[in-house]
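Field notebook, page 378. I keep forgetting to write these up properly, so this time I am using the form the group agreed on. The chain and the ligand, S-adenosylmethionine, are recorded exactly as supplied. Prediction of the bound pose follows.
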Amino acid sequence: MAERVIPLVDQRHAALPAGVPERAIPATGSLSDSLGRPLRDLRISVTDRCNFRCSYCMPKEVFDKDYPYLPHSALLTFEEITRVVRQFVAHGVRKIRLTGGEPLLRKNVEVLVEQLARLRTVDGAPLDLTLTTNGSLLARKARALKDAGLQRVTVSLDGLDDAVFRRMNDVDFPVADVLKGIDAARSAGLGPVKINMVVKRGTNEHEILPMARHFKGTDIVLRFIEYMDVGATNGWRMDEVMPSAEVVKLIHAELPLAQLEASAPGETAERWGYADGTGEIGVISSVTQAFCGDCNRARLSTEGQLYLCLFASRGHDLRSLIRGDAAKGTPPASDEELASAIGQIWQGRSDRYSQLRATLAPDQGGGARRVEMSYIGG
Ligand code: SAM
Ligand code: SF4
Ligand code: SF4
């Protein structure tokens, strides 16, 4: 087996400055980037901390007790998040996903949900407001989240076998507690619940069929995600990726499937329905099939940096606009200035990492230090 090199470094990099353009870019709801892609989906990381240590995301060797997590003062407050989200929504965002780290570890996160649930899209509709969680605290929090206005949750679950699951979360967390969380989310009305299973060859591919059988016939949509080369700490290797096509083939052999239409443009999952009409699964092929062409997603890090791609190495520093910069003597930006700054950054976007992955030389970004998934969220 090839030796694994895990760099022991702080993965955060100096942010790119975010400036206010001289000519205002008013928020008209129809912003598009340099490749003509609109801005529709914003993922917000509300904490860089997590109570799990999934080896593909926050390996224990790196995220140990000495890891330099962000101090509380660096985090955007709920008011700051809501203010900046308002500008994103004015530019056309319709869907917000709270993530992390583990978003349910952020104290009183339901207060943020409540503030975001009051916002309306440019067409006057409520936002599609969701959250991705490891499920560990869901049984306790599902009801409060629903009451605050959360619409749906996605729960990450990499297997049903308790031993496999405990090994993958690497903190010995029992699978039964996550299953209780999923039940609580369903009874609270946070559905349809989606389940994300990251498939790592050699680790949990034997859990694919048990997971498919378990959730078939329920209103839960199980999605299989290819193990991705995000960040720089997970020691990613292509031979540990199980291509989605193989996952579909494996399930189809026992439980026949037929491909379904995509639910929305820019949707990451390819949908497959059970031939006997008892529900559907999804596959997210971020490694083997590029879907950058209609990628309409932006990501806001815990400390207010705007990332234009999951694989970007640097974000744009919105926090110093939101708070002003005492060192430079600049006051906090007005709402219009903030909207213009976001507009300029998105208009300059040309990221399409997945599409270029195969052709990139290491010095062109293929091997560059990238931001960790736990920092900007999935
Ligand atoms: N802690 C929450 C959770 O696990 O659901 C939210 C944050 S987590 C970073 C968001 C999603 O990213 C999870 O579904 C997780 O499985 C996925 N993820 C993390 N690292 C990944 C990797 N290397 N490849 C594919 N998916 C990954
Ligand atoms: Fe934590 Fe989620 Fe990353 Fe696992 S995938 S370590 S639960 S942030
Ligand atoms: Fe979007 Fe970047 Fe993923 Fe392509 S690689 S789909 S641009 S986040």
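OBSERVATIONS:
- Residues 39 and 167 are 38 Å apart (CA to CA).
- Confidence is low (pLDDT under 50) at residues 1-11, 361-367.
FOLLOW-UP: compare against the apo run.
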